[in-house]
Amino acid sequence: MNQLEFIYKRHSVRKFIAEPVPMEHIQEMIKAATYAPSGKNMQNWHFVVIANKEKIGHIADLVVAKNSALTKYLTDETKIKAFKGSVSYHTVFKGAPVLILAYAGPYDTTAGMLREAGIMAEEQIRELDRPNPGVQNVAAAMENFQLAAASLGYGTCWMTGPTYAGEEISAYIGFERTQEGYYLAAMTPLGVPAAREWTYPSRKPLEQILTVIE
């Protein structure tokens, strides 16, 4: 058996059966998430578990409402149509028995330190800000979570689209740590997949994405 088989078990799952996920399993997945690397060992992540179908449905409604509200800031008809059309993808989590919200917390960066000093040009600071290590920490934790979920037989789907409604979602669930600088960075539905046979989207060949310097 391929020793990396656990990686290839992960798929983006958008349809689930109506079967609850035991909390002990969810806790195991969250524990796996916390073993991700993080810069300075800041562990600037926080996970919120929602296993109430009514609440999950209301969160989907908040995303729909925010999608509609943001449309008024677009002027190009093609982009308006595309953005409105994206809302069905941004709410697929409503069919899952569990929704996991991944929050990113404050993280001190070199760019932030230089911005505070007020000497370096903002253009240079923005360039230094591009790696965004604080979000990378949370992304690493999310990947661990999803790999653990797949290994336990569950499906997930990495989602960042709905985060444009992050403020509304946080207010609805009463997540007070947003006052400490935490914000919704990603989310994933979680549950037993409705199907077990998936097609693999094509991947770019290694020679296209790999550079070896000797």
Helix/strand/pairing category: alpha+beta
Biggest pleated-sheet summary = 4 strands, antiparallel
Annotated CATH topology: NADH Oxidase
- Counting DSSP E segments of at least 2 residues, the number of strands comes to 4
Instruction: Spell out the helices and strands N to C.
Output: HHEHHHEHHHEHEH
Pfam families: Nitroreductase (PF00881)
Keywords: Flavoprotein, FMN, Oxidoreductase
GO molecular function: oxidoreductase activity
Organism: Lucifera butyrica
Secondary-structure blueprint:
Blueprint (H helix, E strand, L loop, with lengths): L4 H4 L14 H11 L11 E6 L2 H19 L5 H9 L1 H4 L7 E7 L5 H8 L4 H8 L3 H19 L3 E2 L9 H8 L9 E9 L14 H4 L5
Helix pairs in contact: 2-8, 3-9, 6-7
Protein name: Nitroreductase
Organism: Lucifera butyrica
Keywords: Flavoprotein, FMN, Oxidoreductase
For this entry, give a set of tags.
Nitroreductase/BluB; 214 residues; globular; Nitroreductase-like; oxidoreductase; FMN; flavoprotein
Walk me through what this model shows:
Helices cover 44% and strands 11% of the residues. It is an alpha+beta fold and 214 residues long. The chain has one domain (5-209): NADH Oxidase (3-Layer(aba) Sandwich). Strands 1-2-4-3 form a four-stranded antiparallel beta sheet, sandwiched between helices. The model has no long low-confidence stretch (mean pLDDT 95).
Concise synopsis of the structure shown:
This protein is α+β, with helices and mostly antiparallel strands. 44% of the residues lie in helices and 11% in strands.
